[in-house]
Amino acid sequence: MRKLTYYAVFEPSTNGNYGVFWPDLPGCVSMGDNLPHAEEMAIEALSLHIYSMEQDGELLPDASIPPFDDMPSGGIIMPITVFPDIIRNELDNRSVKTNITLPAWLKDWAGTQGINLSQTLQTALKQMYNMQ
After folding, report:
1. If exposure means fewest CB atoms within 10 Å of the residue's CB, which of 61, 63, 87, 92 is most exposed?
2. How far apart are CA 100 and CA 94, in angstroms?
3. Are 23 and 35 within 8 A, CB to CB?
């Protein structure tokens, strides 16, 4: 299973919150109400950022080794590890809504028969295109 680790910078604010950014991944940012919450949110942000980059065909940069230039005062460097294949599987297999068009009488009939239209469409598409 693929595992990626990037170093994040946790920047404390005066109210106890923490902002998070990755020097290696511009645009990947997060925050949390406290350090444990910020770490939890950082894992989610990094996972989604990597997923998005891979979906867009972008190459992932190599992780830099701290220390970093321009460290904020009081900043904490923490390694954040994610498992991109698990995230990809979760996101690619999540259920999403989509609109379809059916004659009203067919939708009504399916309702009276207790037919789940979403499940029926999934099954029909998988069978039609020989998918497991």
Report:
1. 92
2. 18
3. no
Query: Which residue has 């991944």 as its token pair?
Result: 25
Decide if 54 contacts 82 (C-beta within 8 A). Answer: no
Q: What does the alpha-carbon distance between residue 66 and residue 125 come to, in Å, rounded to a whole number?
A: 50
Torsion sign across C-alpha atoms 38, 44, 50, 53: negative
How close are the terminal C-alpha atoms of the chain, in Å?
23
The b-or-e profile of 19-49 (16+ CB within 10 A means b, else e) is bbbbbebeebebbbeeeeebbebbbebbbeb
- The pLDDT tens digits for 69-86 are 778 888 999 999 999 999
